[in-house]
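Retro notes - structure team

What went well: the batch runner handled both jobs without manual restarts.
What didn't: labels got mixed up in the shared folder, which is why I'm recording both outputs here explicitly, each with its sequence directly above its tokens.

Job 1
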Amino acid sequence: MFAIVEIAGLQYKVEQDQKLFVNRLKGDIGGKVSFDKVLLTVNGSTTIGAPAVSGITVDAEIVGHLKADKVIIFKKKRRKGYEKKNGHRQSLTQIQITGITGFDNKKEEKKAAPKAKKEAVVAEEAPVAAKTTKKSDSETAE
């Protein structure tokens, strides 16, 4: 079971007990956050939102705040004496997905019931086919 959720403007594929880094979120370490903009869920069947799936939320816990590795931006123009060096460190938050909630189990039970009806219909049709073969056997014996 997984979901695609939008967190801080970016889309992530998340599963339960997964740890991931996202752009800095408000909240303290150990705090709980919930994301309700779920774009797609797969739980036996695929549910696609338009634009979001209603009733489903992704719950997470903030593990820590940190900074990413430094990225160096270096600009240079040959033979002009122009050089510019700049750096950037992105602020990140590490979260752990605690659960994906809001799935309706009643839909799964309804899907299981029609399969049982189809099996009963197939079982009733089987003896009819046996009777027709017996008639053909008796006709060939005469």
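Job 2
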Amino acid sequence: MPKDSIISEGKTTNEAIENGLKILKVSKNNVNIKILENEEKRSFFSILAPRVVKVELTLKENHENLPNHKEPFKEERSETHKKEMVPISTENIEKAETDTKRFLEEFLKQIGQEITFSIKKDDLGLEITINGKESGILIGYRGETLYALQSILSAVANKNSNQKIRILLDIENYKQKREKTLQDLAIKVAKTVERTKKRVILEPMQAYERKIIHAALQNSSKVKTESIGEEPRRRVVISLK
């Protein structure tokens, strides 16, 4: 492999590319991209295996580093940036619903008899809700199991689609409850920072949860938020402005 090339990994092709760009500290138009392992090449029965996509990034001969690009990417930019969502075709939505429903029916049989699920379709994908007395086991500590299952369902839904289908999963209304908890935490910690004049580093969180903390304090005139560390132990720091 040429010395100006690297191989990077991610759960999706875009994530693998972005990880490589951070390492090389260049923009996407300064590299040639070769996909070594594609996330689409997965059978239905290999869904539970960890998803790893590998790409090779090679610097172009006339590449130009962006100004100040040696600084780490700001998470606030990536977590609050809204990508343009393209409506999914009816055919792909129907396939995704069928595959997801079949997977959940078989999977939930192994968990308990009193667990039910519902699927709501929209132009961008599926919203899946799981309820039942025994469904709490699927949430896990701080929602870790829930997010892992959401990733699996996303792989199931997208295995026969040529478009990226968005999958949102909630279990026993966990996400809404967790959002309220995090918003209250952000306000409480912000008051502590104002009183003590010392920054507070929160525990590691999912990107979705960090975004809630950032949003809760984005209009504060006294404190600011930023994220530090590497996944999966990335944390939010709350400090005085």
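One thing worth noting from job 2: The beta strands are 5-10, 31-37, 53-59, 115-121, 125-132, 166-171, 200-201, 223-228, 235-240.
We'll revisit the folder naming next retro.
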